[in-house]
Structure formats: structure tokens, C-alpha cells
């Protein structure tokens, strides 16, 4: 099946009214070689004007602000996308592929995807893991990436809510459990250390009745794209030990999660917030018609992965503020 | 003008006015203690605390000198003179570029004077001299404020702070002294009573001004009349409210935005209350309720003013 | 012969300048006042002659009156900590530093060329990045720079001006040649001291000033305002221009207030600003007022909690989106720190050749890149002769002056370099020039640099002069005000 429709509902509820909320969202599926976004809509309550721009990774970003007081903020993203079947990957690449990769990196703009980023920092735990999994520039790049996908799949236990949005990868590596972001960040850090450009993909994974994925169904998902000579960027999903295919729907790419969180914002007010996220992905073999009047059903699958934390508030002590002013 | 700047100027001014008021009341209280009277030192101290609006702070310790020093220097207590000067200076520092160099220097000098060892020394020697020099410092600041600053919005917000603080403090002071003022005790010594009444006038720096209007014939009704309803004396309530009205009109006419009806209404009501009444009417009615109402209205003016000029909601401002 | 020459330059005053010159040494460095043979340089003669006529008492009196003048003008900084709230004046030297018209013309041409090239570079990096594709500047140097702002990619900035306000630091080598030590492309400070020094000097030495024919600099605030206005978003004919300060605790707060006042614009803090629908407003007593141009004295990181550091209390949420939408100009642009990165500095001459097809008029100081193996080995072997600087630091911090450092300090730096070579550069220790300074009525040489201030709006403009910073400590090479440096007025002669 080539067509997918996605409804992605996010709701922030505040214990006290807040004001001057301002938010950016990465929910607009990408349009590129393998995937075509046929329609996208974003509904926000309270009503406001939604603006959008394209960031330098080619992601479509929406943003808006709500000046008045509100007790809750609801964001509903609806999209329809069409996937194109890509040629199957070869079983392996020739040994010369390492040199081809080096040449491609030398000539192209891949530098950012080779350097450590916020969530993919080098650490003792990471080096230990690399030794344990025997990560090295063996065979050819494709085989290395494939084997790493599988060994990470086996190394980690998938445990929803075992880590937080801002957990460093060390936490997951040392406890051997985590969620898709952790597996993805770990794999990116290891690939970059081998000189293979690797980037973070944020999106959704459709689960049909015959699929037996480990990750939570109908949820936001994350996986890795690695640059391979002659094949360009290829997606690998260490959470489910898969090569990304038709069921992997891509919303945004970045160096890591920090570049592309689904929602990112701040507000004024002193209130605890409670976040609820629900995603529904449906597949069809023909282009579906989105019924815009359809009410949001209550029985959606509740996402239990990630995005538990409310965005940090810039509440600060006077001394911290003084220190900042001295920059 | 930026709301933040108006906010800081307003509070700078309020805190300094508060400091000045506290200094004067403390000075009068201390000098009244020099004469023997039926009123105990503790009663006087507690009365001072109530009229300064701090009923639950600075509990009487039995040592008047120590208490006085605490009221002057103890920055941990928000009612202390030093705490007020400190707060005024902090506000001034936030808007250093909006006030003149002279203003800043005056305020800074006062601040450092309060922290100098000489001030401590003086407080143990001649406390009255110290209090007089603090008043001098504040007067100098007010003088350079009026002579070195553009009389624009910033200056008007300084006046608003000054007059609102003064009106509120004067109403509180009169309320506290209402009993002694209006009810003569049988067999009360006339000499002591005279001192009390003069002390009340001196709390509002108005003894000389009173004498010019009424001669040295000190009569409680006339004191009330003078401090509440006089049109021309700067420490009279009516003068202060007229000043608030005047400053608000100046701010409104200079800006693009009309002040809300609520603000016009509450200032107008209070002004009318003081303008179109006589002291006889006030005394015939419930004087306590009258003074209480003035304080409540001052508080209301502050709130409306604040929510219109300083802390308004972005949404409301966008809707305009 | 040399005595004959000295005779020629001797002053036509009854007193010789020896009384104040005393044993003023002429060392191996370039001396702004004396030629290597000890004679006075021509343009310093009038100054020396004037000094010779003044008694030590009179000099002292003028010094005191200048002190007072700084104080009463409020040109002070507030001391925090122990002496909470006391105001001090900035250290300065009473004597002007003189620059001839021809020297200045060269500096002006050189800086203009350099700033134009640096601006080209920023525009290129944040659009097509041709210079990277052509491998003139290594990509990894850009991506590993902590001042690189990927959010800027593809953004249009008004008039393509990224760096509207610049202060570049120049040194003078023993040969007399001026070289550029660094470019300050983020929030260069110090211009208020240039202006106030001049005001005080004109009062202290009025006749000398008049006789020298000094080019004026007083119009800098007006030029700055015109520059900011020229960068306003299109269609905003009467732009509301503000200066954004981190707040009263910032060390340059005096300058922020000074410039805002001189330009007659509002001095705002982040908390005064709000954004709605991609428009920036400031909260005034008259309601929300739209802001069109922000002269920003807050670092990138602290400017917008949505786009940059989320924990900032100094910024305005949504500012960057409004900027991206072209509804507000923020200057200097974000991400300009990329071009004044100490590692990037080494590539500036190549940028000048690449973008302008010209040879640099002002040279760089020789710089070793520690990411290059050969250069790093050389540096590590010669740490005792070199100056090592951390690329991300400024103000004289994070620096190793090899010849003055202890073995332990050098070893510590060697380890730090090995651990993160990208984070450091090395330069030879520079014998930069000295100028005469007044100490107790006598002249003594002290090391000086020069920071001219460059404005770039519809064109590049440099007021003739700048801030001459002085290492007041004898023999010291550190001119930064945070570390015992002072300043002196700079007279560019007609």
C-alpha cells in the first residue's frame, strides 16, 4: 500500500491559565524522492495565525503564538502522503566503497552529519559499546550499517518511558534499555565515529496487521539515515531491525532530536502542564479523501513514548539572571 | 515611554517618599518621648508602627534606641528606612539612563551615607541630626529631580508615585491619631496635648504652613481641615490628589492612548470627595470610614494605573 | 650624524623636553613617539613641546580636572561585590596617541577592504557556500565553530549587510606596519570611551588640540543611527530603532545607555519586547509599539529562547522568526561570530583574494592552525615562544603567553591542545608598538593597540580614530580593560 493518512493530535493542559504561548512544530511530512506529501493541515486551538518556513534541512516548520490566557493548547496535524517504492538494496557493496564514500564526503556538504551533536556526543560508555559490538570499518559500509542496526536491536531492550526527552545516550547504553530516540542517537554517534555521515529522521511508522514491530504502534517514531556511496541516504531502523521502507513516513531530518522535536515552545505563567499525544496512521492503496469534519475520536492510541516533558520555562533566580547579563 | 521604565521610576519615587515619611514620623515620636506624659513609650512605638502600616513587624523590645536604630538600618525589614532607600536606588539603577546624572549621584550619595560608619556613630550620638541629614538627602534628590529632568512622562510617573504614597500615608497617619485628635480626655494636660498636636503637624512637615494659615492656635478640627482639604499645601491630601489628576492628564495628553474610564472615574471620585466637602461635614459623619475610604481609593488608583500603563496583557493591547 | 639629526628635531622652546622625557627608553619595538635613534617623530613634536612647558604640578592639575570631568559626565562603571555600588572611572592616559593622515588613509582602505570581504564571506556561507565548495575554507572549520548559526542559512538580510557595526583590533609591528589582530563582528564595545575620551581631551588640552588639526569623530552616534535606519525593513519609513541590552549588570551597560541617549533611541531589555504574528513590539505606557530595527548588544545564544538557548531570560521569544520573516532588522545579524572565530581569522587574507580579487592591504598576524598536524607539532615544540589563544574566548581570557608562562601552565595548555586542537590557535609573541604615557609627571612607554570602529549600512564608514587601548602595567602586553588595560584618545591628524 502506497498511501498513508496521518492524524497527529497534541494537547497541552495547564493547571493554571498561561499566556503568550509561542510554539514551533515539526509535523509536516517531507516531500522528496521517496515520499510525496499530498496534503497537510494543522489545526490549533485557541485560534491563531499559523506561519511556516522551510529550514535549512528542507523541513517544513510551522509556528504560531497565542497572546491571551488559555488553559489548554491543542494542535492537530493531518496529512496524506504517497510513498514510492525504492530499488531494493544490494546485499553488499564492493570493498572500494569506503574510498567512494570518502570521495563523496570530500566533495559534498556532509560535514554537519559527521560531527557530534547535542545528543550524539562521544563518551566512555559509547566507546565501550563500540568495542563490545565490534564496530569498525570492516567489509563495506552497507554491511557495517546493516550489522550495526541488528546488533543495536539485540543490545537494547525496548522499554517505553524508560528515558526522558533530554536524557543523554549514556543512560540508555548503560541500562541497555530505552526508546527509539536512544537507539537512533546511539547508532548515529557510532556511524559518525566511523566516518559515515548519519542523520536523525523523525516520523511515523505504520503498522499493518501482519507487522510485528517492537515500537509502540501508531506513534511518532525515529530512525537513522546513513549516507552510502551510490545509494545516497538510506534509512535504517534500529528499534525494529528494519531497513526503512514504505511504512516509514518521514516528517523531518536533522542532526539529532534537538533539531526536530515535534513541538517546541514556551509560555508565560507558572503552571504545571500535562501533555497528551495521539497518532493515527492509516494505509490505503488509493489516495484517501480526508474528511475534515470528522470529530477527533476519543479512542485514539495514546502515545507513551517520549514527549512527556513540558518545554522548560525560563524561570530564573536573580543571581542566574545577573550571571547571564554578564554573558 | 517603556512600561518597565515607568514602573521603575514610579517605585523609585514611592520608596523615597516612604523613607521620608518614616524618618519624619520617627523623629517626631522620639522627640515626644522627651517629655513625660501618660502615654507610655510602648504605646507610642506601636502607634508609630501602625501609622507606618507595619503592624506585625518590629515588635516592641523595651529599648527605644535599639528599636529606632532597627527602623533606620535593618535592611532585612522592608519597613526600615534603609530598605526603602535601597529599593529606590535599585529601581533607579534599572533606569540609570532615564534619570539625570545629578539624580543618580544624589541618590547614590544618600545610599552610601546610610551605609557609612559615621551614620552608625551618629545614630548612637545625636539621632535627630542623622534623621535631619537623611531628610536633607531626600530633599536634594527631589530638588534635582525637578530641576534637571525633562518634565515628560518619566517625571510625571515620579510625581504619581510620590503623591500616591503621600496620600496613602497621610490618610493612615490621620486615622491612627483620630482618637487622640478628636476626643479630649478629662483633666488632660494642655501642654502635653499641644505637643501631641504639633507633633502630628510636624509628621507632615506642616507646622509652619499651618501657622501661616491659622496662626499658632492649634485646634484639632483645623488640623484635619488643613491636612485633608487644603488646596495649596503640598502635604495636604487634596493637593496630592490634584497632583495625581494633573500628572495623569499630562501623560494622557502626551500619549496616543486614552486612559481607561475606570482610572478617570476613581481619580475623579476621590478628587470630588475632597474638593466638594467641608470639615464640618466630615466630622458630622464617620471620620474613620472617611479616611478608610480614601486609603481604599488610593489603592484602587494604584491598581488601575498599574494594569493600564505597566502590566497590561498583550492580548488586550493588541485588541486596541 | 645622529646628534645632528636630533638637533633638527629639537624644539624651539627654551626648555628641552628632557625634563619629562627623562630616561624614556627606545627599545626594539616601534615607538609611536620616538624614532629608533631617539629623535622625536615629526608629528609628536608639538605634543612634546607643550609638555615641556607644563610643570609637573600643572600636569597633575590637568589630570585631576580630567578625572573630575569623567566623573561628572557619569562615565563610570559600577563596582559590584565588596564595594557594592561605588562608581569608578575607567583607567585612561592623559596623552593622545597621534596617527598621521597618510597612516590613517592606509588603515581606512585596509579595513574597508577587510570588512567588505568578511561580509561577502558571511553572505556566501549562509547562502551558496561557494567558498566551501571550492575548498578555500575547510567545511569542518565552519561546522565546528560554535558561532555558526545554521538557522541563518537561506535567510535574506537587508542590503545583504551582516556586520553593520564592527571594531577591529590593529597592532603596529616593529617595522611600523599595522596588522590586524582580530575582528570583532558580534557586539564590539568601547566606542563610548572613544567618544568620551575625546570630549575630555578637548577640555584638557584645548590649544594643543586646535593647533594639531584633529579629524572629528563626534558624529559617530549620528552615523550609527543613519546606518541602523538604512537597514530598516522595506516600507518602514519612520523606523522605530531600539538598542537591546542584556541589562544593568552587563559590563558594557554604560555604553548601552550612552549610545541610546546619544542617538535618542529607546534602550530596551528582552522583557520589554513581545512578538505576535511575526511582529516585534515593545511594551510602552502608550501600549504596544512596533519595533523595526534592533541594535543588538546581546549575544546570539541569549537573544531568543525559542531559536537559541531555551533558558535565556535576556531575549525575546519569537524574535528570530520575526527576523526571518523580514519584519524586523536585527544587527549585527546572527551568526556573524563565525567570521571572527580565531580559527577562521587565518583565512581572511584568502577571503579577500577570493571575493575581491585583491591583495590584502592590512596583513594578518602569522597564525598557526592546530588542526593541521605539522603546525601543531611545531607549536607544541615551541610553546615557550608562542601565544596560544582559545578560539571561543575574548577579552584576553583563555590565553597562554608562552614566554611569561610557567612550565606547569604550558603543560596544561599542551594537554588542552592535544585534546581539542580545533579550540586553539597559536601566534608568535608580538612586539607591538609603545606610546608615551604619563606617570607622575614623566613619560614612560606602554604597549598600545588600536580599535577603529567601522559602520556598514549603505556603505562602509569609519570615523577617523578609534580606541587606543593601553597596557598600563609596565611591560604588559594585555590591553583588555578587564585585565588592567586603559585607554587613550586617538588623534588622526589632517
Task: Give a quick set of tags describing it.
heterotrimer; A: 327 residues; alpha+beta; Immunoglobulin-like; C8orf32 fold; seven-stranded antiparallel β-sheet; five-stranded antiparallel β-sheet; 20% helix; C: 494 residues; Dna Ligase, domain 1; five-stranded mixed β-sheet; four-stranded parallel β-sheet; 16 helices; 32% helix; 20% strand; disordered N terminus
Number of strands of chain A: 14
Oligomer: heterotrimer
Task: Summarize the main sheet of chain A.
Answer: 7 strands, antiparallel
At CATH level 3, the topology of the largest domain in chain A is C8orf32 fold
Explain how this protein is built:
The complex is a heterotrimer of chains A (327), B (320) and C (494). By secondary structure, chain A is α+β, with helices and mostly antiparallel strands. Chain A has 6 helices and 14 strands. Chain A folds into 2 domains: 147 residues, Immunoglobulin-like (Sandwich), CATH 2.60.40.2250; 161 residues, Roll (C8orf32 fold), CATH 3.10.620.30. In chain A, strands 1, 2, 3, 4, 5, 13 and 14 form a 7-stranded antiparallel β-sheet that branches. In chain A, strands 11-10-9-8-12 form a 5-stranded antiparallel β-sheet, covered by helices on one side. In chain A, strands 6-7 form a two-stranded parallel sheet. Among the domains of chain C are: 95 residues, no CATH class; 63 residues, 2-Layer Sandwich (Dna Ligase, domain 1). Chain C is built from 16 helices and 24 strands. The longest helix of chain C is centred in the first third of the chain and has 25 residues. In chain C, 47% of the residues are buried. Chains in contact: A-B, A-C, B-C. At the A-C interface, strand 1, strand 3, strand 13 and helix 6 of A face helix 7 and strand 8 of C.
